[in-house]
Inverse folding.
């Protein structure tokens, strides 16, 4: 059918966005609203002797100034970490409390110290400068290396050596035996550089309190209203969820960072309740660098054991992951299990050992960023496999082919116990190499060398594992001439309004333009899992399908009454004209879905139906996932590096993906393009850096932090093979993070090949490449 599943339908929501009719959090204005400004610490580590807010409170236009004292008096709890891990000896990790506003000591530059509220943003900013904080600076450790040094300053008493946890998974004995028997061991030390999410729309929130109902509404840019409500109400304010409503309007990008509760959420809610007026906070780009969670930041030693034929016997990885000054919401899990589950990728590796030390540093918090551990895991194995291909002489293609899990072995359980239900990895590799003209690359390398350019080609085969809550809800309301679907996920620009409309239009036989998709209001749907871990299509799509089945069953009973037939004699189907109808089997007597919905709202239904249809033709339900999905694919990147300047330019980029059944190829391709662009940014440009001794943020703006621009990203040639997932009824696999997961190693493998060295750490900046080329030439 037109606009059905499989068609490249343009995003319906884009009309709203490109005509300026989107509504983002900062577009909202509430009557009598006040403006909040956060006073942040200029020190990475300091004792607070006292906070004098007297001058600030007396400043013109100031309504209130809050410190930790006011929050403590009201029983406001600390910011939550909901995903702690166990140490390898079974003990609990260090979980120091993270106050909303600093209490006694600050531990990173930008840590919130006070909240100033005034009648205007300007007045609040001016008053914030009048707050006097008595800081006594302490020695700081701004990096992993500084924090684990023998003489490092201690950040938390409960974390000796600044180690938050020492976690391990795998079979140590089997790995040790495999390495002892190996014919070759390949080793690499890798840096996973820290990155700042930098969505187009910075964080913002507005809270308003209704005294009559004693309920607070928080309007905020997020990746899921329900999860945010559960953590804020249930964990920070320790109150029933019903006291807090969270509403998320349009969102201008999140990339993982907008999943979490932040101090500003707590502060606006607290202030709105105390002042009995709306309070808003809008973050600037400078605050995003200081106060948003960051991504990645780890140091890895990886080892690969191989037999004489180049087959992998075992993988051993030790990792130090920077958590920042506190455990963030999911920080420990992101550094361990999130990527660890698929460490080893799509290769048949008999034994794996993965050890992670979480390190506290005097730096901003680190948590999920597009891929959340999976790009790190893919980078580790794909750099190691590539190095093994070079050292064995097998090359980047053959080393991978020899070690792939085979389609005939599916379902294949990896070392963690994750079942791979489907996948044709050799097919995707072959297609990508053919599209990239891999066999004729050496001729292109020679031609580039004659022009003073060093050309390299890089291959990466990634696998992603979709995550998030294993249950999702949806509600479908069939109206007179439209269908409204409410989902528990949250669009951050991924095209949900279009994709979900395609699913429902095909399933119920209603016009694509008649489907309205709603999300982002904790009052409208009882619960929801939000957006993260590439879960939205699998989970919300599954929920939509499950509820559509219930709509069919419910509508059939009313249709049977209207058609004067038995329920068993009536069927529902989408007919040749694309319309969904209930029809008496074997006859021409039928009634359309919208006609049944209109009849459901008539007052003269029989007693047996009246109660069931009191709310009309409406159903709510949930989908429980049987398993995560495992999108995978091959990236092939070709780069040229200028001899004179060290500037790297990506010449061609090819991707062949397996996302299972494709609902909208156009949206999928856009997601891949965006993900690859973020991977290119990390590989070549982006580097969030703290000074080791002072903990000062060196790259605190776009003057110092380089983001990818249009001329840094080539046209990405995208193709796919539809290999349906066997563990969900739609046959889909998530695609939102896949581009980033595959891109890091593809780009860096190409860079290493071009320079002719064994390894270069990300980001491969011109200076780093120029020096590496000159060292390689001199050796």
């Amino acid at each position: 059918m037109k606009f059905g599943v499989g068609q490249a339908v343009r995003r319906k929501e884009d009309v709203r966005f490109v005509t300026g009719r989107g509504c983002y959090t900062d577009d909202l204005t509430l009557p009598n609203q006040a403006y909040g400004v956060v006073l942040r610490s200029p020190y990475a580590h300091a004792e607070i002797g006292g906070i004098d807010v007297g001058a600030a409170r007396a400043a013109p236009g100031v309504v209130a100034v809050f410190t930790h004292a006011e929050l403590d008096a009201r029983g406001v709890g600390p910011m939550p970490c909901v995903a702690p891990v166990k140490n390898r000896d079974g003990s609990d990790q260090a979980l120091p409390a993270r106050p909303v506003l600093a209490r006694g000591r600050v531990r990173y530059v930008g840590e919130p110290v006070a909240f100033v509220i005034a009648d205007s943003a300007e007045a609040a900013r001016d008053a914030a400068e009048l707050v006097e904080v008595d800081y006594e600076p302490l020695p700081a450790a701004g990096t992993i290396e500084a924090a684990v040094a023998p003489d490092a300053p201690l950040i938390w008493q409960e974390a000796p050596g600044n180690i938050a946890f020492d976690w391990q998974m795998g079979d140590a004995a089997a790995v040790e035996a495999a390495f002892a028997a190996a014919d070759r061991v390949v080793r690499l030390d890798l840096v996973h550089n820290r990155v700042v999410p930098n969505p187009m729309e910075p964080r913002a929130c507005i809270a308003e309190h209704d005294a009559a109902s004693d309920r607070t509404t928080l309007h905020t840019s997020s990746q899921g209203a329900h999860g945010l409500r559960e953590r804020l109400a249930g964990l920070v304010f320790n109150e029933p969820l019903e006291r807090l409503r969270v509403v998320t309007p349009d969102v201008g990008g999140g990339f993982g960072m907008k999943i979490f509760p932040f101090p500003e959420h707590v502060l606006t809610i607290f202030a709105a309740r105390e002042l009995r007026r709306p309070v808003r906070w809008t973050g600037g780009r400078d605050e995003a660098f200081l106060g948003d969670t960051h991504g990645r930041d780890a140091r890895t030693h990886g080892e690969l054991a191989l037999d004489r034929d180049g087959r992998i016997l075992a993988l051993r990885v030790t990792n130090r992951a920077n958590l920042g000054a506190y455990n963030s919401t999911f920080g420990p899990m992101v550094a361990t299990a999130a990527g660890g589950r698929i460490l080893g990728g799509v290769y048949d590796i008999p034994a794996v050992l993965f050890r992670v030390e979480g390190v506290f540093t005097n730096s901003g918090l680190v948590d999920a960023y597009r891929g959340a551990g999976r790009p790190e895991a893919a980078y580790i194995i794909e750099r190691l496999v590539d190095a093994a291909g070079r050292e064995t002489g097998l090359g980047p293609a053959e080393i991978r082919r020899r070690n792939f899990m085979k389609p005939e072995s599916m379902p294949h359980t990896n070392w963690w116990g994750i079942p791979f239900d489907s996948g044709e990895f050799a097919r995707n590799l072959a297609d990508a190499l053919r599209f990239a003209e891999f066999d004729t690359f050496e001729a292109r390398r020679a031609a580039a060398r004659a022009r003073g350019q060093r050309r390299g080609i890089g291959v990466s085969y990634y696998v992603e594992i979709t995550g998030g809550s294993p249950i999702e809800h949806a509600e479908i309301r069939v109206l007179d001439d439209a269908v409204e679907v409410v989902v528990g996920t949250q669009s951050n620009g991924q095209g949900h309004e279009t994709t979900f409309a395609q699913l429902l239009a095909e399933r119920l036989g209603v016009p694509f333009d008649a489907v309205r998709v709603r999300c982002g209001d904790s009052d409208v749907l009882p619960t929801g899992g939000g957006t993260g871990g590439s879960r939205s299509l699998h989970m919300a799509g599954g929920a939509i399908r499950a509820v559509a089945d219930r709509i069919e069953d419910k509508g059939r009973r009313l249709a049977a009454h209207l058609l004067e037939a038995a329920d068993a004699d009536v069927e529902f189907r989408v007919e040749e004209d694309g319309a969904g109808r209930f029809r008496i089997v074997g006859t021409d007597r039928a009634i359309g879905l919208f006609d049944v919905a209109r009849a459901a709202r008539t007052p003269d239904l029989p007693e047996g139906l009246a109660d069931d249809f009191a709310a009309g033709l409406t159903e709510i339900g949930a989908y429980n996932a049987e398993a995560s999905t495992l999108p995978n694919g091959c990236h092939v990147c070709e780069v040229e590096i200028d001899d004179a300047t060290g500037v790297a330019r990506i010449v061609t980029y090819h991707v062949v993906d397996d996302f299972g059944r494709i609902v909208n190829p156009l949206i999928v391709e856009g997601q891949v393009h965006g993900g690859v662009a973020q991977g290119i940014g990390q590989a070549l440009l982006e580097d969030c850096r703290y000074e080791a001794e002072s903990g000062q943020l060196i790259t605190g703006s776009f003057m110092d932090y380089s983001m990818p621009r249009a001329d840094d990203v080539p046209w990405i040639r995208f193709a796919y093979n539809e290999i349906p997932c066997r563990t969900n009824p739609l046959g889909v696999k998530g695609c939102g993070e896949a581009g980033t997961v595959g891109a890091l190693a593809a780009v860096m493998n190409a860079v290493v090949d071009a320079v002719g060295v064994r390894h270069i750490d990300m980001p491969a900046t011109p200076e780093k490449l120029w020096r590496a080329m000159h060292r390689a030439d001199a050796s």
User: Anything to note?
Assistant: The mean pLDDT is 97. The radius of gyration is 28 Å. The longest helix spans residues 536-563. The longest strand covers residues 312-324.
